[in-house]
Amino acid sequence: MRDFDQPGRSPVIAENGMAATSHPLATATALAVLKDGGNAVDAAIAASATLCVVEPHMTGIGGDCFVILAEPDGTVHGLNGSGRAPAASDPAWYRDNGFASMPQTGVHAVTAPGAMDAWSRLSTRFGTMGFDRLFADAIHYAEEGFAVHARVARDWALHVPALRGDRGAAIHCLRDGDAPAAGTRFRFPALGATLRAIAKDGARAFYEGEIAAEMAATVRGQGGFLSEEDLAAVAADWVAPLSVSYGGYDVLEIPPSGQGVTALILLRLMEAHGIGKLPTGSAERYHMEIEAARLAYSVRDHLVSDPATMTRTPEELLSDSFIHSLGAQLSAERRNPSVVLPEMARSDTVYLTVADRDRRAVSFINSVYSAFGSKVVTPRSGIALQNRGGCFTLEEGHPNELGGGKRPMHTIIPAMAMKNGRAAVSFGVMGGDYQPMGHAHVFSNLVDRGMDAQEALDHPRLFWGDDGILDAEGGIPAQIRSDLVARGHQVRDAGAPHGGGQMIVIDDENGFLVGGSDPRKDGCALGW
């Protein structure tokens, strides 16, 4: 139990439904849908639509979506709603035109947006309400305006120069050439009209017709490759989640093209080496988690891609023999300098989770990748196009090399933990590359260290930056940092918090849902 003399909050406990999102307006949207008789699928889609308006730098209908859904009987479904590179994309063109690596902004980083098709397939198969009801709050906030919350305002202001450089972004994402201040009202009328069109005519109104034509024309007008045919061909895929055992739970992740296998490799290493048994806030724990993560991420950046081009299967990467070979490189005393660190791109994402009275649980993540995606926004329809192409590599022969019609290795990952054949914990941690590390750290807090859902999310985090130096959040004491330095790490203050997460624990013993929401964002958990 937390110290009530200190800042913090208790977990939310309720019986009939629970939602946890990164913004209070989205949580309220989800709860209203549940109270109106919708199920967790309906509520998750509605909350995501609201987030596309009120957290516009983090997510949008021009991005991608992944989902894990656990039905009341324990049946589990995975959905990969990531778009593909334009069919005309050619890595040789990029190399010939002076790109040493994939661009992170602009039209040459744009991939087809997969989220809207994923929402549609999820709603058609498992939902009970139409987009007209589910988009109602999002349309209202887009047209009538919403209050800009503190974390949103802080992040928005960082990207003003880039937004000024694109005509559509300057029109729709700035006010008098600047970002809105916290507490002020902001509107997205063009995006509201686009959402109305999709609510009326369905997802095909997004992928075909005037909206699709403008998306393609906006990209092609600046020299990019996205076509109307690329948009019409978008299709999310139902997939079987990957699973490993940890702490008496079966932890589920979406398979590649997502990086969920990275989290599972990390959990397997943690279980094999007893990392969960180390003292909670100790240097030993942080050191071993970081060292195991460096190995898992190195595997990711060498081997994980669109499954059609992977040279090793996820099952091989999670096998006992492979985990043993990785674990042989771990030292409890010293940092292993021979591990090749991947480059860490900074990205922006929203994760949310909803559980309903039937104990249907939805783990849902939606993103435009970097803040405001590619920084390219369609002038009429107000859609921020994602820069997910930035996740490809231009290294010839690499499994994740850019290719026409190919999915990039993807950072956004929802998670679910099952126990006794039913959903027990629906959770996720935002933060681009941090996400696998966040999944393992937060889940270990819950399972190994007896924390409740809120405490598990609150606990201080550590991760490396682009240069390999560990960025320590403010809650990690000076002595722990010194101990890490003695083990061969370089440590500095984190310039920003690591990610942000949500969690719902399904407490079958007492008949309640227990929710937590990360204080690193503006959001909250609410139940009824």
TrEMBL record:
Coiled-coil segments: none
Pfam families: G_glu_transpept (PF01019)
Record's protein name: Gamma-glutamyltransferase family protein
InterPro entries: GGT-like_enzyme, GGT_lsub, GGT_ssub_C, Ntn_hydrolases_N
Native organism taxonomy: Bacteria, Pseudomonadati, Pseudomonadota, Alphaproteobacteria, Hyphomicrobiales
